[in-house]
Structures are given as C-alpha cells and as structure tokens.
Amino acid sequence: MRKIILTALNTLMLVSIAAVAFAADGGVSSGFGLAAAGIALGIALGIGVAAAGGSMGQGNAIKAACEGTARNPDASGKISQSLILGLAFIESLVIYALLVALILLFVKM
Fold it and tell me: Which long-range contacts (CB under 8 A, 24 or more apart) does 33-38 make?
C-alpha cells in the first residue's frame, strides 16, 4: 500500500512540475522566465531520480550476484554474464533519462 501511495504522490509531483514548465505562452522573452525555471527544475529532478533509481538497482543486482556466487561458486560464470547484461540494461535507462533531459534543455530554452 505504501508503494502505491508513494508512486501516486511522485506522479502527481512530476505532472504538476511539467504543467508549470510548459505553461509559457509563446517564447521565453528576455530573462529567465518561469517556464525556463520549471524546465531547469524538471531536468534536475529527472536526472537525480534516474541516477538514484539506477544506482539502487545496480547495487541490488551486485548484492544478489555476490550472494549467488557465495552460495554456488560453480555458477559464477553464468551469474557474471547475467549481472553484466542486467547492469547494461539498468544503465541504458539512466542514459535515456539523460537524453530526455538534454532534449528538454536544448529544445525549450
């Protein structure tokens, strides 16, 4: 239940920040307007959440691989291959978040 509530609150927060970021009518005039500030805040939060989630996922994967190797040293080759593949998938999600942040930075500002 707690996970559902936290997910709902995070979604609500991100949707409210996006509404502020894209609320500009026309282009951003001289200065650092509210829309540009919202976009900068959204970029910072997006990269921070992606990096935190990716690092927690990678930490859990490495922990599980170490425990699996400790329990069954003969399977260390298969565990290592699966670990490297899983870490690559996790890191690709963080890189996608970085690309989205860069697109927001250069298209809207």
Answer: 35/108, 36/108, 36/109
Please give the average pLDDT of every successive group of 10 residues along the chain, which has 109 residues.
84 74 58 73 87 91 92 90 91 90 77
CA distance 61 to 90: 10
The answer for residues whose C-beta is within 8 angstroms of residue 33's C-beta and 6 or more apart is 24
User: What is the token pair recorded at 42?
Assistant: 């959204």
Using CB atoms within 10 Å of the CB of residue 72, give its burial: 0 to 12 exposed, 13 to 18 middle, 19+ buried.
Answer: exposed
* pLDDT value for 25: 59
Rounded distance, CA 94 to CA 52, Å?
Answer: 9
Q: Cα-flanking dihedrals φ and ψ of residue 29, to 5°?
A: -80, -165
Query: Quick one: pLDDT at residue 26?
Result: 56
Query: Closest by alpha carbon to 17, among 41, 49, 52?
Result: 41
- Token pair listed for 23: 């609320």
The H-assigned helical ranges of 22-75 are 34-71
